[in-house]
Structure formats: structure tokens, C-alpha cells
Amino acid sequence: MLEAPVDIADTKLPRHIAIIMDGNGRWAKQRHLPRAAGHREGAEAVRRTVTACREMGIQYLTIYAFSSENWKRPADEVDDLMGLLRIYLRREIKELDEKNVRLRIIGDRRGLAEDICQLIDEGENATKDNTAMVLSVALNYGSQAEIVEAVRRIAKAVKCGDMDPDDIDEKMISNHMYTKDIPDPDLLIRTSGEQRLSNFLLWQSAYAELIFIDEYWPDFDKKALATAIDTYASRERRFGAREN
Ligand code: FPP
Fold first, then answer.
1. Measuring from each residue's beta carbon to the nearest atom of ligand 1, which residues come in under 6 Å?
2. How far is the CA of 46 from the centre of ligand 1 (A)?
3. Residue 159: is it exposed, middle or buried by C-beta count within 10 angstroms (0-12/13-18/19+)?
4. What distance in angstroms lies between residue 118's CA and the mean position of ligand 1's atoms?
5. Which of 14, 35, 53, 130 has its CA 20 to 30 A from that of 61?
6. Which superfamily, per CATH, for 12-142+184-233?
7. Would you call 22 a catalytic residue per the annotation?
8. pLDDT of residue 11
9. What integer pLDDT is reported at residue 161 of this predicted model?
10. What is the rounded radius of gyration, in angstroms, for the C-alpha atoms of the chain?
11. CB–CB of 145/108 below 8 Å?
């Protein structure tokens, strides 16, 4: 059973929130700290946000943890991010499970280290029957590559006669995405004042409300989340019926 929303009792809740967590580096720079410190605080903000979403009754949360472009960062920063991810996966699985949260990873696993893939398998497996919320972590994820891969698989199926081109529609394309089992995001939040999608869930965000907030990701908390949800709800009230 989902818990009653806190703080935003009468607000229409988005079913699925997607977040581009941006600004760890600038948060650290502002404090004369190394970038790694910003990422560490960013990981804390992830914990806070997962808890807050679950308490509010959000059913799906998808976070952009590492894009396919992030490999171009300096090797030590990539190592820091992968290290944090290992720590997060080792530490949080038990807690996610206790909180009845299901973990899923979306993205291209081929580029990831073997031990990380193993941690992912363990985490997904341990939490697969959980029902309070689905936390999808985008790792080595790029939306255009996801679409290319979907097109390639569909083209192969057509070529070998398993699929009729006339059967290709939006639903069938959605079914070839990493996100095939989860509804499209209703609300997409990006922190740090940048106003771009940066190759995140391009297909899936066709109807999402986009909210750009100025705070850097490490400062993101329950209050910021509640404010974003309120803004989402007021847009819903203003625009009435949705297109989808
Ligand atoms: C952007 O900050 C953030 C990322 C590179 C991805 C988010 C990573 C984390 C929150 C850390 C660990 C994640 C998990 C799931 C444990 P930036 O470095 O691009 O900031 P900048 O634009 O200010 O330089």
C-alpha cells in the first residue's frame, strides 16, 4: 500500500518523476572543494530524494546518474563516479528493499565494469518483487542510442519476416525502450539552472512537464521536491485535460 503524501496533501501527484541531477561540480567549486566532494553530496541528495519520493507516494522515480557522454570526463572523475556508484549499490540495496522500493538500471551495460554489472544484477534481483516505488537509475545511458537500438531491433524483425511495417506504432516503439515496463514521466526536473534535456528520455518525455530549478543537485531536498510537484500540479490545473 502506498503511503499518504506528506506536505502536499491536496496536490495532484505525478506518477513518474525523472530527474537530471546537475550541478555537483559547481556546488563543490563554490565551496573550494574538489569535484568528488560535490558528487559525494550528490549521492546523499539521491538518498534523500528516494526517501522523499517514497514518502510522498510517487510510484516511479528515474534519475540520470551517468550518461554515455560522461565517459569523456577526466579518468579520475569517472573513477570517482563509478566508486560512488559501487558504494551506493552495496549500501543501499538492503535499505531500498526494506522500504519496498524496486531498483532497475537503464542504459547500456556493455560499457560497465563487471563487478558493477554484478551489483546491479544482485540489486535488481533482491528488489524485484517490491511494490512501493520503482527507482530507475540511468547508467551509461543515452536516449538517442536507445532509440537507434530500438530501430535496429525492429528493422531486423521486419527483415526476417517476424514483423509487418504496418504494425509499427508509438506503442511498439515504446516497447523496445529500456523503459518498456514503466509509464512515461509526467514531470522532468533538472537542477542547476541549465535548461536542456541532454539526451535523457527524449522519446519518453514527449508529454512531460519540464521544471528547471536553480539549486545545485547536492542542495536538492524534500522542500525543493515539494515545490516542483506544486508547480507541476498548478500547471495541470491551468491546462486541464492532457493530450495523452
Ligand atoms: C552532474 O554534476 C552530476 C552527475 C555527473 C551525475 C549525478 C551523479 C551523482 C549524483 C553521484 C552519484 C550517483 C548515485 C546514483 C550514487 P556535474 O558534475 O555535471 O556538475 P557541474 O555541471 O556543476 O560541473
1. 21-26, 39, 42-43, 46, 65, 70, 84-85, 88, 137, 192, 217
2. 10
3. exposed
4. 22
5. 35
6. Decaprenyl diphosphate synthase-like (3.40.1180.10)
7. yes
8. 67
9. 96
10. 18
11. yes
The x, y and z cell numbers of residue 187, run together, are: 514531470
Contact between 12 and 66 under an 8 Å Cβ cutoff? The reply is: no
- Grid coordinates in use for 115? 563487478
Pairwise CA distance, residues 202 & 148, whole Å:
12
Ligand 1: residue whose CA is nearest its atom 5? 66
Provide the 8-state DSSP code for 55. Answer: H
- Compute the distance between CA of residue 26 and CA of residue 39 in angstroms, rounded to an integer: 10
Judge if pTM exceeds 0.90.
yes
Cα–Cα distance between 77 and 222 in angstroms, integer?
28
Q: Which of 86, 197, 212, 61 is nearest to 137 (CA)?
A: 61
Tell me the per-residue pLDDT of 34-86, one tens digit each, with 9 for 90 and over: 999 999 999 999 999 999 999 999 999 999 999 999 999 999 999 999 999 99
Q: Is the dihedral of CA 27, 87, 47, 127 positive or negative?
A: positive
